TrEMBL record:
Residues 383-493, 694-839 form the Glycosyltransferase 2-like domain. CDD domains: AdoMet_MTases, GT_2_like_c. Residues 44-137 form the Methyltransferase type domain. This is Glycosyltransferase. InterPro entries: Glyco_trans_2-like (IPR001173), Glycosyltransf_2 (IPR050834), Methyltransf_11 (IPR013216), Nucleotide-diphossugar_trans (IPR029044), SAM-dependent_MTases_sf (IPR029063). The keyword Glycosyltransferase applies.
C-alpha cells in the first residue's frame, strides 16, 4: 500500500516540485546539468531541501547523501523519495555530519546566500571531498538580484557579487570554471566568456545587442576542483512553446510584479512630495534661534547617550593615575548598592520561610493510608460555594461532583447566593430538589454581596462537619480529587494537629507559588478550592470582612500560620479551574482587589520595609499604571479604601515570634516560572496504561538523609507510573535506608536498589540505565529535588511533540551550605544561562541543561550507550551531545525541579576551577563523539 505523502509547505524561497513557473525551470535545469559529473560517484547534495534533486542524482550516482538543516524537509524527503543508494540526513553546511574525504562530488545550489559563515562552509565542503573531488556550487549574483532592482530577499543573509563568489571558491580550489544561468523561454546555462555571436533582442528600443555570453545572467555556477576541471558545454533546458507561455502567464512573480511596480511608482511620487515638505521644515528649523540656543544641551545629551564609548577612553586614562583603585572601590560599592535597590521589593522573609520549610523535611509527608478505602471510615464533609451570576457553571460543577469516588451521601452542599441577577438562584433551587436524595444535604442561602470571604463565612456557620471544602463554582473536580485530599487530611490529623488546610491543585494553569517539594508545605493556600479544618477555622475566626475579593485567602493563610498552623498543597487532588479565557488576561476586579489586598496584608504582617515598599508600589502604579488601559483609574479608585483601612490593619499588626510572611512586588511568596503553562486534561491513560518512567538516583555513603528527601519528592509526583532506581556507588551502606523508604512510602513507590563497587558516578549511571524498564528516563541526584509536576510535564511534552528525543524544563539553583547530617539553603536563583531554547550548536559549546531537568528516551542508551566512564566531570554534558545527534530536544518554560550548588564563595570557586580544567578534555571527547557518529552513518 502506498504511503500518502504530505506536501511540504513552500516558504516563498524554498522550491517544491508542485510549483510551476520560472522557479521550476531554474531548479530542475541545474540538477539535470550536473548528472554527467555524478555518474557512479559518491555525491553530497548539501541543502537538499524538498529532496527532488537528490533523488534525480540517485538515478546515476553510486551513493548520494541529501543533507539539510530543516528537519521537516528531511522528514518529507525520506517519505517521498526513496532509493537504495539515497540517504537523507539532518545537518548544517558548517558542520556536515559526514567523515572527511568521503565524497567524489559536492552539489550546493543556492545555499551560500542563506548564511554568513561562508568560510566555515567552504572548509567543510573541502573536508568532505576526496583530493580529486569536484564542487558544483551556485549563487545568485547580488548585482542582478538585489542592486539593479532594489530588491531585498528576507531569506538571503549575505549575497555575493560574482567576483566575490569566484574569489571565495578560488581560495579553496586550484581550478574552476564559471557558468551563467538565466531563464529565457526555457533556461540557459552557458560557460562564462565562451559564447560568441550571441544576440539579445531588446524589445524596448528594438535594437539587437551582440553579447559574449548571456545578457544579465541571474545565477553563477562554479565547477571547482584541485585537479583540472573537465567542464560540460552550455545547456538549454526548455519546454514546448505553449507550456513556456503558460509558465509566464501563471507565474506569480510575473503577475505580482506588474501590480507591484505600479504600486511602487505611486509610492515614489508620494514620498517625493513628502521629502520636499520635510526638507522645507528642516531648513526652517535649522535657521531658528531656538535650535542655535539649544546646541550645547544637545552636545551634552550626545555625550551621555554615548557614555560607554567615552568610558572606555576615560578608563584607559584613569588606569595610569592614582585614582584608579579608589574609583574601582567606589564602583564596586555602587553596583552592590544597585543590586540591593533591585532586591528591595523581595522580602527577606521569602528565604527565611523556605529555610524553615527545609528544616521540616526530615519528617517528610504524612502518607495517605491506603487502608482508608472503606467508605464507612470516611468522614462527613461540607462543601461551601459562593455564587454570584454564575449560572453557566452550575451544571458542570454538579456533574463533576456526581462522578466523585467519594460517597455523596457523606457530602453536604451549602450554596450562598450573593444577590445574583441571572438564573443562578433558580438553578440552585432546581439542583436542591433534583439531588436532595443523593447528597446528605443541600442548602441554599440568600445574601447581599458582601464578598467572597463573607459569603463562605455564612456558609461555614451553617455547616457542622470537622472538614469543610471551600470551593469556587467555575471549576470541575477530577473523579478522585475529593477522596485524595480527604485521605491526605486524615493522615495528617493522625500524625499531627497543626495542619490547618489542604489546597487542591488547579489545572489547566497551576498556581506558580512556591511549595516545598518534600513536605508539600506552602506559605499560603488559594481558596479557589481548599479543605479547611474547622478547629483551625474557629481559632482564626474566619475571613477578614474588610477584604471584599482577591487576597482574602492570603490574609487568612497568613493568619493561620501566625497562630502556629501549617498549610499543605495536595498535587494528587486536582480540579479544573476555568478562571481565564486566555493566558495573561487581566480582570479589572482582580487587578484592583489584589492591589488593595497586597497593601493591607503588608500593613498587618510585613516588616517596616515591607510596609514602606507597599506604599511606594501603590503610588507608582497610580502614577505609571500597568500594561492595560484604565489601570491607573482602577488603582486610584483604591485610595479612599486605603485611607479608611490603613489604621485598622496597621494597629492589628500581629507580633509573631519565629514566623515569616513573604512579599514580592504585588505578589507574595517566591513564584516558579510557568504560570501559564497549560496542564491540559489527561490524555495519557490511567496508571499502567501510561508510559513507564525510570528515575535513576546515584548515591553513596553518608547521604541517607538526602536520599530520603529525594525519594519523597519522587513519591509526590502527580504522574503515577514511575520506577525509582537507586544506585549506590561504593558498597551497600544505604541498604537500611532503602528499606525505611519502602516501609514509609508503601508499595506504591516502586524502588529498585543496586549496590555497586566504587567505580565512579558514570559507571553507576550506566548501571541505572541498564536496569531501566521505562520508555523515558530521568537522572535525579540524591541532593536534588523534583516539584510534583516534573514527570507529568515532561512526559506530556515527549508524548505530544513528534521528532523530539528529549524534553527539559527550568530549574532553580539552590545555594546550599552543608554540615554533618544537614544543610542550610542560602539562596534560590534562576540562572539565565539555563533559560535557553534548544540549540544544538550552542549545546556543543556549553551545557545549559541541568542533569535532573531533562527527560529522554531510554532507547537512546541502547542505540548509542551512556556516560563515558573515563570522564569524572561534565559527563552529563557529553551525554546530551551524544543524544542530540539522534533528534531534537524541547524546552518547557516551567520550573519543575531544583539542584544544589555550594553557597560558600571559596567552594564555588574551587568547583568552577575543576569544571574549567575539565572543559578542554570534554571538548576532545565531543569531537570523538561527533566523528564516531559520522562514521556510523557512512557505514
Amino acid at each position: 500500500m502506498n504511503k500518502e505523502i504530505q506536501l511540504l509547505n513552500s516558504t516563498g524561497e524554498r522550491f517544491v516540485t508542485e510549483l510551476e513557473g520560472i522557479i521550476n525551470l531554474e531548479h530542475w535545469h541545474r540538477y539535470f546539468y550536473v548528472l554527467k559529473h555524478c555518474e557512479n560517484k559518491t555525491v553530497l547534495d548539501i541543502a537538499s531541501g524538498e529532496g527532488y534533486g537528490s533523488y534525480l542524482v540517485s538515478k546515476v550516482a553510486k551513493k548520494i547523501f541529501g543533507v539539510d538543516i530543516d528537519k521537516d524537509s528531511i522528514s518529507h524527503a525520506k517519505n517521498k523519495y526513496q532509493n537504495k543508494n539515497l540517504e537523507f540526513i539532518e545537518g548544517d553546511c558548517t558542520r556536515i555530519p559526514l567523515p572527511s574525504c568521503c565524497v567524489d562530488v559536492v552539489v550546493s545550489f543556492e545555499t551560500i546566500e542563506h548564511h554568513d559563515q561562508h568560510l566555515d562552509m567552504m572548509r567543510e565542503l573541502k573536508r568532505v571531498l576526496k583530493p580529486d573531488g569536484i564542487l558544483i556550487i551556485s549563487s545568485p549574483d547580488k548585482a542582478e538580484c538585489s542592486d539593479r532592482n532594489g530588491n531585498s530577499n528576507i531569506y538571503h543573509i549575505k549575497e555575493l557579487y560574482k567576483d566575490e563568489f569566484k574569489n571565495l571558491v578560488k581560495n579553496f580550489f586550484k581550478y574552476q570554471v564559471c557558468f551563467e544561468q538565466r531563464v529565457t523561454v526555457g533556461s540557459i546555462i552557458l560557460p562564462e566568456d565562451k559564447v560568441t555571436n550571441f544576440v539579445n533582442i531588446n524589445l524596448e528600443n528594438k535594437e539587437d545587442i551582440k553579447l559574449n555570453g548571456l545578457y544579465r545572467p541571474i545565477f553563477s555556477i562554479i565547477i571547482a576542483s584541485d585537479t583540472q576541471v573537465k567542464a560540460n558545454e552550455g545547456s538549454l533546458y526548455d519546454y514546448p512553446i505553449e507550456r513556456a507561455f503558460e509558465f509566464f502567464k501563471n507565474d506569480e512573480s510575473f503577475s505580482e510584479a506588474v501590480s507591484y511596480i505600479a504600486h511602487l511608482e505611486n509610492d515614489i511620487n508620494t514620498l517625493n512630495k513628502q521629502l520636499i515638505k520635510s526638507n522645507n521644515r528642516l531648513a526652517i528649523l535649522l535657521s531658528s534661534n531656538s535650535f542655535k540656543i539649544t546646541k550645547p544641551l544637545r552636545k551634552i545629551r550626545s555625550i551621555i547617550s554615548n557614555y560607554p564609548r567615552y568610558l572606555v577612553h576615560l578608563k584607559t586614562i584613569i588606569r595610569k593615575t592614582k585614582l584608579y583603585k579608589p574609583l574601582c572601590y567606589m564602583a564596586s560599592k555602587f553596583f552592590v548598592f544597585k543590586k540591593k535597590i533591585k532586591e528591595l521589593p523581595f522580602s527577606k522573609d521569602n528565604l527565611i520561610l523556605i529555610e524553615k520549610f527545609s528544616k521540616n523535611r526530615s519528617g517528610g509527608v504524612s502518607i495517605a493510608s491506603s487502608e482508608v478505602t472503606n467508605y464507612s471510615d470516611l468522614p462527613h464533609i461540607d462543601i461551601t460555594v459562593v455564587v454570584y451570576n454564575n449560572s453557566q457553571w452550575i451544571d458542570d460543577y454538579i456533574n463533576s461532583l456526581l462522578l466523585q469516588k467519594y460517597p455523596l451521601d457523606k457530602i453536604s452542599m451549602i450554596f450562598v447566593d450573593n444577590g445574583s441577577t441571572d438564573e443562578s438562584l433558580n438553578k440552585l433551587y432546581q439542583i436542591s430538589e433534583r439531588y436532595i436524595d443523593i447528597f446528605s444535604k443541600i442548602t441554599v442561602l440568600k445574601s447581599i454581596n458582601n464578598g467572597f470571604g463573607a459569603g463562605h463565612d455564612l456558609a461555614i456557620k451553617d455547616s457542622l462537619s470537622d472538614l469543610v471544602l471551600v470551593s469556587n463554582l467555575d471549576l470541575k473536580f477530577e473523579k478522585d480529587a475529593i477522596i485524595n485530599v480527604i485521605r491526605s487530611a486524615l493522615a495528617d490529623q493522625v500524625n499531627s494537629s497543626d495542619i490547618a488546610c489542604w489546597e487542591l491543585r488547579q489545572k489547566p494553569y497551576e498556581h506558580p507559588k512556591f511549595y516545598d517539594p518534600v513536605t508539600l508545605e506552602t506559605p499560603w493556600c488559594s481558596h479557589a478550592c481548599v479543605l479547611l479544618s474547622r478547629r483551625a477555622y474557629n481559632v482564626a475566626g474566619g475571613y477578614d470582612k474588610n477584604i471584599f475579593m482577591y487576597g482574602e485567602d492570603v490574609e487568612f493563610s497568613y493568619r493561620l500560620r501566625s497562630l502556629g498552623f501549617k498549610l499543605r498543597y495536595i498535587p494528587s487532588a486536582v480540579v479544573y479551574h476555568y478562571t481565564y479565557d486566555e493566558i495573561n488576561i487581566i480582570k479589572p476586579l482582580q487587578f484592583s482587589g489584589s492591589l488593595l489586598s497586597n497593601y493591607l496584608i503588608r500593613l498587618r504582617y510585613g516588616h517596616v520595609k515591607d510596609k514602606l515598599i507597599g506604599l511606594v508600589l501603590q503610588i507608582l502604579i497610580i502614577i505609571r499604571g500597568a500594561n492595560f488601559k484604565g489601570s491607573r483609574s482602577l488603582a486610584f479608585g483604591n485610595v479612599t479604601k486605603m485611607i479608611f483601612l490603613t489604621p485598622r490593619f496597621y494597629q492589628s499588626r500581629r507580633k509573631i515570634v519565629n514566623e515569616s510572611f513573604p512579599f514580592y512586588y504585588f505578589d507574595y511568596a517566591l513564584n516558579r516560572e510557568g504560570a501559564f503553562y497549560n496542564l491540559c486534561e489527561n490524555t495519557l491513560g490511567e496508571g499502567a496504561d501510561k508510559p513507564l518512567v525510570s528515575i535513576i538516583t546515584r548515591t553513596y555513603k553518608g547521604r541517607d538523609y538526602l536520599l530520603k528527601q529525594c525519594a519523597q519528592s519522587v513519591y509526590n509526583q502527580t504522574y503515577d507510573n514511575i520506577e525509582h532506581i537507586i544506585v549506590e556507588d561504593g558498597g551497600d551502606t544505604v541498604k537500611q535506608t532503602i528499606k525505611d523508604i519502602k516501609s514509609t512510602l508503601g508499595e506504591s513507590h516502586l524502588v529498585k536498589y543496586i549496590p555497586l563497587p566504587k567505580l565512579g558516578r558514570s559507571f553507576a549511571g550506566n548501571k541505572g540505565l541498564e536496569n531501566a524498564r521505562g520508555k523515558y528516563a530521568v537522572f535525579l541526584d540524591d541532593d536534588d529535588l523534583l516539584f510534583s509536576d516534573h514527570v507529568e510535564v515532561l512526559v506530556n511534552t515527549l508524548e505530544n511533540c513528534a521528532n523530539i528525543v528529549a524534553a527539559y524544563s527550568l530549574a532553580w539553583e539552590v545555594g546550599t551550605e552543608f554540615f554533618e547530617g544537614g544543610y542550610i539553603e542560602k539562596f534560590y536563583q534562576m540562572n539565565s544561562r539555563f533559560i535557553q531554547e534548544y540549540d544544538k550548536n550552542k549545546l556543543y559549546e556549553e551545557n545549559y541543561i541541568p542533569i535532573q531537568s531533562i527527560m529522554f528516551k531510554t532507547n537512546l542508551f541502547k542505540e548509542s550507550g551512556g556516560f563515558d566512564e573515563n570522564v569524572e566531570y561534565l559527563e552529563d554534558w557529553l551525554l546530551w551531545i551524544k543524544y542530540s545527534l539522534y533528534g531534537d530536544f524541547k524546552l518547557v518554560k516551567k520550573t519543575t525541579s531544583l539542584f544544589r550548588t555550594p553557597s560558600e564563595s571559596t567552594i564555588r570557586y574551587e568547583r568552577q576551577k575543576q569544571l574549567n580544567n575539565a572543559y578542554s578534555m570534554a571538548i576532545k571527547k565531543r569531537r570523538e563523539i561527533l566523528d564516531e557518529f559520522r562514521s556510523r552513518i557512512i557505514k
